[in-house]
Amino acid sequence: MTTWVELEKLQPVATRMLKNSIEKNRMAHAYLFHGPQGTGKKEASLLFAMRYFCEANQETSEPCQSCRACKRIQSGNHPDVHWIEPEGQSIKKGQIEYLQKEFTYTGMESNQKVYILSEAEKMTVNAANRLLKFLEEPSRDTIAILLTDNVSSILNTINSRCQRIQFQSLTYDHLFNQFISEEIPESTANIFAALNLDLNQAIEWNRNTWFAEARRIVIQLIDRVMNPKEEGYLFLHQVWLNHFQERSQQELGIDLLLLWYQDIISYHLDRKDMVVLTDQHSRLEKYQYVLSLGEAKTCVYELLQTKRRLAYNVHNTLAMEHLVLHLQR
Q1: Is the model's pTM score more than 0.85?
Q2: What is the phi/psi pair of residue 163, to 5°?
Q3: What is the rounded CA–CA span in Å between residue 190 and residue 184?
Q4: Which of 135, 116, 123 is nearest to 86 (CA)?
Q5: How far apart are alpha carbons 120 and 101 in whole angstroms?
Q6: Non-local CB neighbours of 44 within 8 Å, separated by 6+ positions
Q7: Domains, the chain, ordered by start
Q8: What are all long-range contacts of 87-92, with beta carbons under 8 Å and residues at least 24 apart?
Q9: For each of the chain's 329 residues, which pLDDT tens digit applies?
């Protein structure tokens, strides 16, 4: 588990703000942690919750990480720490109502309670309005922590009731070196750094056969859309849609495709030092002659448009059919 000392090396400003609020006993009733994926927002929220409930020495901002409360929070089993994540594609009104109901009860072990909303930008309008009422009448011993990669999607009325803590993007080189130190292969470490994964997620994905298969399927789709004699549309329905089923998986598939077209652009610009897919140089060199620079840029635009369509709940199959028809050579 990360410590404040370790997190401060990556996020000095955000960490100092949180540590100061703990040490001076001036913790806000609601926080909004915002910044790109993989910048330590989740780790900071867990550290904050552990310190709030820690049963050991309270003279420092560091939780002991060894008492019963700290261990239960680490394992996700503390009865007074509630973690809310999207159900399917969004955080729904019913989830917030359930949370409010839970908080009307006396705490299992104290009156202190913490709730953490992951991907808070995915709240429905009704859920956000329900949460707003919750924030307007805060309990003295209750702390809310909202995590988001996209702060502009959070209602201004919610923004104004939270203390905002910004998490800065980590450098590509820093992430890459972290992953290499964990013995993640160089070609994979490049991809994880480009995707802005945090260390724990990178380690998990490196061991995950689903991700390895996802990379293989992306290569197969690229080979098909680059060859006019191949049928990318058929491959989409026979293979792609069966593998990339959940929303997060669909978004990852688009991100992996983006890396391919961005690398082809790097080849056109003679910037091979910027290539992410370092184990695919032979394919990239071949495909730069199949796809012009202008066409590669158009493909990147179509991929970004597809991500937006998925964010607006366009059906995955329709969005991907539209995309493949545009990518097919």
Answers
A1: no
A2: -85, 120
A3: 10
A4: 123
A5: 19
A6: 7, 11, 14, 15, 18, 33, 165, 167
A7: 4-166 (3.40.50.300), 208-327 (1.20.272)
A8: 88/247, 89/122, 89/247, 89/313, 90/122, 90/123, 90/124, 90/127, 91/117, 91/119, 91/120, 91/122, 91/123, 91/124, 91/127, 92/124, 92/126, 92/127
A9: 589 998 998 899 999 999 999 998 899 999 999 998 889 999 999 999 999 999 886 778 999 999 999 999 999 999 999 999 998 788 999 999 988 887 777 666 677 899 999 999 999 999 999 999 888 877 778 899 999 999 999 999 999 999 999 999 888 998 999 899 999 999 999 999 999 888 888 999 999 999 999 999 999 999 999 998 888 999 999 999 999 998 889 999 999 999 999 999 999 999 999 999 999 999 999 999 999 999 999 999 999 999 999 888 789 999 999 999 999 97
Residue 28 in tokens = 């806000």
Tokens matching residue 307: 């991500």
**Joined tokens for residue 212:** 């390895």
